[in-house]
TrEMBL record:
Name of the protein in its database record: Uncharacterized protein
Key words, A-Z: Membrane, Transmembrane, Transmembrane helix
Organism of this sequence: Mesoterricola sediminis
Ranges that cross the membrane: 79-100, 112-129, 135-156
Length: 194
């Protein structure tokens, strides 16, 4: 299966997961592995950064007009850990990418193992998106705002720099190497009469 087809199937699976939100309990069941991974990222970073996790659940519950698929509560969210705990699910993106590269390296065919891998990758990507509550927690930290400002400044600086034109010397040197290679070949010596 070509890479573009594999990525297209992952995109279709993501679209399918999103479309299933109307059938809530089926959606909750199909996204349970991703929900578990999402909340586990919060839990692990909360433990590592001493945010003192005090509750963990992946059981969906009604919150206002919507649903919370799971949650982790913390007793000690501070300025230095709020950003990292809030955006912890973004760590699922490298995991999804690694799984994708691994499956593509195995020259995937069509079958149940690939369907399961596509489902797992789509679930990881879907679960990697921080919720609004996660972003509200992350926004309490000046670290996040500083990283955002630094990223925007770097992007602005990078985009504003004029792109240098390719120097003429490189092109000539490349052509010279190609000519040298041609004249050293046995066919070139016969053509030149030597």
């Amino acid at each position: 299966m070509p890479e573009w087809a594999y990525v297209a199937l992952i995109a279709a699976a993501l679209f399918g997961l999103h479309a299933l939100r109307r059938a809530f309990w089926l959606f909750a069941l199909l996204t349970l592995p991703g929900t578990l991974a999402h909340e586990t990222c919060h839990l692990v970073l909360g433990l590592l950064l001493r945010a003192q996790p005090s509750g963990f659940t992946v059981v969906p519950r009604r919150e206002g007009r919507g649903w919370a698929m799971g949650s982790v509560s913390f007793a000690r969210i501070r300025w230095y850990n709020a950003f990292f705990v809030g955006v912890a699910p973004l760590l699922l993106l490298p995991a999804a990418y690694g799984l994708l590269r691994w499956r593509l390296g195995a020259h995937p065919g069509i079958g149940w193992p690939e369907a399961l891998a596509i489902f797992a990758i789509a679930n990881l990507v879907y679960a990697s998106v921080p919720s609004w509550q996660d972003l509200r927690i992350a926004a309490r930290s000046p670290i996040g705002w500083l990283l955002l400002a630094g990223g925007l400044a770097w992007g602005w600086h990078t985009l504003r720099q004029p792109r240098p034109l390719r120097p003429a010397g490189r092109v000539q040197a490349s052509m010279g190497a190609a000519i040298m290679r041609d004249t050293r070949s046995p066919n070139a010596s016969r053509l030149n009469g030597f």
